[in-house]
Amino acid sequence: MQISTSRLFDRASSQMVTIQNDLAKSQAQIASQKQVLNPSDAPDQAAAISRLKSVIARQDNYSKALDVVQARLDTESTTLTSASDILVRIKELTIQASNGTQGTVSRLAIATEMKGLRDQLVSLGNSTDPNGSYIFSGSRVKSAAFKTNADGSVTYQGDQTRMSIPVGDQRTLAINRPGTTAFVPVVRDGHGVSFFDAIDSLIAGVKSGDSNVMQRGLTEMDALHNGVVMAQAQSGTDMKVVEQQGAAIDDTKLSLKTALSKIEDLDMSTAITDMQKLMLSLEAAQSSFAKTSQLSLFKYLG
């Protein structure tokens, strides 16, 4: 009888402790709204959760990379639009200057305005992104793309490198555009003439009233303008790609988060119902334990 009563007590005590532990776990799950509190509770499920979170974090990094690309493209697009407008104005001034009725003073005034526009183009060529990196310097992002020399000429001091960053598991996008692909050189007598040298030659022709130089300059301005317009078009295409890739990443993250929620998040209604059942079970176990503790033989043994 002594052994039987002792076992009854141990069983009741063990049952109560088990229910208490289950109830504590249930309450902790509800508080955190998570199914798995410790990896040891469900190793496979915990591993799956960890993998999904890692993939989601990688997608978040891709989104941040796209933000960087977008910021640079916004600056690039604005810059090229301004450059295009300036070149149109230079062409208008050239046509005005080539009119035979223009006198020396008028041509000098026109040349002065053209020189100011040319300086604006140099400034635009040295535009920077929100992080202070020069957008037209190739990989030399900490150096101005165009340098004005002591003699007033302008030289390109960037390189031709296009840098790319990953924006997807198998997708990269360029984050820069070499200046010579936007501010393109022109071909003159079989030789390449830089963007700003072509403009400087035209300004000199306006000052001197050389109609041949001005006519050649008009043709070259068309080529310079076409180069900027093509760069604008490419920038617009790149922005569309960024938009599409961003949408794809958002879709991927939504799918991943849905999958993560299914294996990580707690079904609150079910969990609350289970907790209530455990509370009732605990009350029953405590009642049973109290009755067992009051057995006369148990009192005798105590």
Explain how this protein is built.
- The protein has 302 residues and is mainly α.
- The protein has two domains: 2-33 and 266-301; 54-259, f41 fragment of flagellin, N-terminal domain (Up-down Bundle).
- Helices cover 69% and strands 7% of the residues.
- The protein is built from seven helices and six strands, in the order H-H-H-E-E-E-E-E-E-H-H-H-H.
- The strands form three sheets. The protein has a two-stranded antiparallel ribbon. Strands 3-4 form a two-stranded antiparallel ribbon. A two-stranded antiparallel ribbon has the order 5-6.
- Strand 3 and strand 4 form a beta hairpin.
- The radius of gyration is 38 Å and the shape is rod-shaped.
Low-confidence stretches: none
CATH class of the largest domain: Mainly Alpha
Q: CATH topology of the largest domain, anyone? A: f41 fragment of flagellin, N-terminal domain
Estimated radius of gyration:
38 Å
Overall pLDDT level: 85
Structure summary, number of beta strands? 6
Number of helices: 7
Strand content: 5-15%
| Envelope shape | rod-shaped
CATH architecture designation of the largest domain: Up-down Bundle
With strands numbered from the N-terminus, the spatial order across the biggest sheet is 1-2
Fraction of residues in H or I helices: 55-70%
- CATH H-level superfamily of the largest domain: f41 fragment of flagellin, N-terminal domain
Q: Spell the H/E element sequence.
A: HHHEEEEEEHHHH
Give the structural class. Answer: mainly alpha
> Largest sheet, if any?
2 strands, antiparallel
Q: How many structural domains can be distinguished in the coordinates?
A: 2
Kindly report how far apart the N and C termini lie: 14 Å
